[in-house]
Design brief:
Elements (H helix, E strand, L loop, with lengths): L1 H44 L1 H9 L15 E2 L5 E13 L11 H12 L7 H13 L6 E4 L4 H9 L7 E10 L7 H4 L7 H6 L8
Antiparallel strand pairs: 1-2, 2-3, 2-4
Length: 205
């Protein structure tokens, strides 16, 4: 009887071992399937997305404004030209700070910047209006026509303002103001009043 009990016990242990081995094999197989599925998602389905994200680590898009030609009259008098100006821009997503929201971090930076450069409330308001409409990864104009003193002050304190940068832009310059304006034309940003007169169907992207 003892021998039969011993044989029965061995059989039960073998069955238990086989059951545990099968369960362990199923768990390992499921884990491998999950890993393979994740690799498929990363390498195939989201390949283009992560490729673009990696490109952002070493590529930076810098918009370059086109340079317009100079205009002279028949006597060689300059009617329209270009002149460079330094502007202060902000890339919202690159602004650092302890605040959770991007806007709060920018507002905190503005408070520190006010001690160095006179940024008007109107300029700040226009900046936040543009920020709602534009990409947070692209520079947005904050302050134009920087003076030599402002350029020097910001250059010294540049490291204190991550996400802020100085750029050079070409501005259209008319030496004789509105004289011959009907000939040389005028270039400027469209405002709300002009926008209401525009047929949006002809200017939709």
């Amino acid at each position: 009887m003892q021998k039969r009990d011993s044989i029965g016990s061995d059989v039960d242990e073998l069955k238990l071992f086989n059951a545990r081995a099968i369960v362990a094999a199923i768990i390992v197989l499921l884990a491998l399937l999950l890993i393979i599925a994740r690799l498929v998602i990363l390498q195939i389905e989201k390949h283009s997305y992560y490729t673009e994200e990696s490109r952002k680590n070493y590529l930076k898009n810098i918009p370059i404004s086109p340079v317009r030609g100079q205009i002279y009259d028949r006597n060689g008098v300059l009617l329209a030209a270009n002149r460079s100006e330094y502007v202060l821009e902000v890339i919202p997503n690159e602004v650092k700070g302890e605040q959770k929201s991007t806007r709060k971090r920018i507002e905190a930076s503005f408070k520190r910047l006010d001690k160095l450069i006179n940024i008007t409330d109107n300029e700040k308001q226009k900046f936040f209006q543009k920020m709602r409409k534009q990409s947070l990864y692209r520079p947005i104009l904050l302050h134009s026509n920087l003076t030599e003193e402002e350029i020097a002050v910001f250059s010294v304190n540049r490291s204190r303002f991550p996400g802020f940068q100085m750029s050079i832009r070409m501005e259209r310059y008319y030496p004789h103001k509105t004289i011959a304006g009907h000939v040389v034309g005028y270039v400027g940003r469209i405002d709300k009043r002009d926008l209401e007169k525009v047929d949006k169907r002809n200017y939709s992207g």
